[in-house]
Amino acid sequence: MKLKVYTDRMSQPSRAVIIFCKVNGIQFDEISIILSKRQQLSPEFKEINPLGKVPAIVDGRLKLFESHAILIYLALAFPSVLDHWYPNDLSKRAKIHSVLDWHHTNLRPGAAGYVLNTVLAPALGLPLDSQAAAKAENLLTKSLSTLETFWLKGNSKFLLGSNQPSIADLSLVCELVQLQVLEEKDRVKLLGPHKKVGEWIENTRKATMPHFDEVHEVLFKAKEKFEKQREMGTVAKPGIQSKM
Amino acid sequence: MKLKVYTDRMSQPSRAVIIFCKVNGIQFDEISIILSKRQQLSPEFKEINPLGKVPAIVDGRLKLFESHAILIYLALAFPSVLDHWYPNDLSKRAKIHSVLDWHHTNLRPGAAGYVLNTVLAPALGLPLDSQAAAKAENLLTKSLSTLETFWLKGNSKFLLGSNQPSIADLSLVCELVQLQVLEEKDRVKLLGPHKKVGEWIENTRKATMPHFDEVHEVLFKAKEKFEKQREMGTVAKPGIQSKM
Question: What are the residue boundaries of the GST C-terminal domain, all occurrences included (chains A, B) (predicted)?
Answer without folding.
Answer: 89-232
